[in-house]
Amino acid sequence: QVQLVESGGGLVQPGGSLRLSCTGSRVFFSLLVVGWYRQAPGKECELVATTTNPGGSTTYADSVKGRFTISRDKTANTMYLQMNSLKPEDTASYYCNPRCLGPGTQVIVSS
User: pLDDT tens-digit profile of 57-77?
Assistant: First the structure.
């Protein structure tokens, strides 16, 4: 069973930045596509960004393009999501599994 641990969330003011981390097994990071997902209260799990292995091609949801950057450190089996210019609508729990299962890491954007 793949175990993933998300971290880096917190409370930030609009316009602020956070960097999320996802640490997992080598098996997970050998997958062709890995990514970040989020689920806001009362809403469905949605794709935020993906990156491919080994090429590193990226895709982003329209709502985060130009503000978020996905990256990975293969040697550390870690994936990151740099989030800039955060907006209140980015408030959600963020996950690195596509079903938004587990504790995730909570991001709250509020003044």
Answer: 999 999 999 999 999 887 888
